[in-house]
Design brief:
By secondary structure, this protein is α+β, with helices and mostly antiparallel strands. The protein contains three helices and five strands. It has a five-stranded antiparallel sheet, with no helix packed on it. Strand 2 and strand 3 form a beta hairpin. Helix 1 crosses helix 2. The longest helix has 21 residues. It is elongated and about 65 Å long. It starts with 14 loop residues before the first helix and ends in a 7-residue tail after the last strand.
């Protein structure tokens, strides 16, 4: 055996590992908020990645010993999903109708605004460029305050600020 050959031969996932992974995957999906809206196709794309991660974790001892027919604690995925959900929402940026804090280059305009338009288009390098229209709400109508605002110039405010 040469030094680059593995000490242990790879073994396909066992029926028990697959059953445990399926139960964990179902539990993870059930704990997602109802309004998450992951399409079936997206879930099926995630399944093999989840399986590889789960079984790798079991085999390296990072998930604890594999126990057949022992349910997982309900908080196991809750903690991970909270972080995942926060990361997903952080990447997506503010949505239309959301209150944001503007802290861009126009210092005289710093403050809170409502997002009333989002424009997405490819930039010169082919990456997506996102700009926002920010508005004040006066006398029952939105009044445009800033246009062409870049993602890095706004921070979405928590929902409790919007009441």
């Amino acid at each position: 055996m040469t030094s680059i050959e593995p000490v242990h031969r790879a073994v396909p996932s066992t029926e028990g590992e697959r059953e445990q992974m399926e139960a964990a995957f179902r539990t993870a999906l059930e704990q997602l908020p109802e309004n998450t809206g992951f399409l079936y196709d997206v879930r099926e794309l995630a399944r093999p990645l989840f399986e590889v991660g789960w079984i790798s974790g079991v085999r390296t001892g990072h998930t604890g010993p594999a126990l057949v027919d022992v349910p997982l604690p309900s908080h196991t995925f809750g903690t991970a999903l909270v972080n995942l959900s926060a990361a997903l929402h952080a990447d997506s940026g503010p949505s239309i109708g959301q209150l944001v804090s503007y802290h861009g280059s126009q210092e005289c305009c710093h403050g809170r605004y409502w997002v009333t338009r989002i424009e997405r288009e490819p930039d010169r390098r082919g990456r997506e460029s996102v700009v926002y229209r920010l508005s004040d709400y006066r006398n029952g109508a939105f009044v445009t305050a800033l246009t062409g605002v870049h993602t890095w110039s706004v921070t979405a405010l928590p929902q409790h600020w919007q009441r």
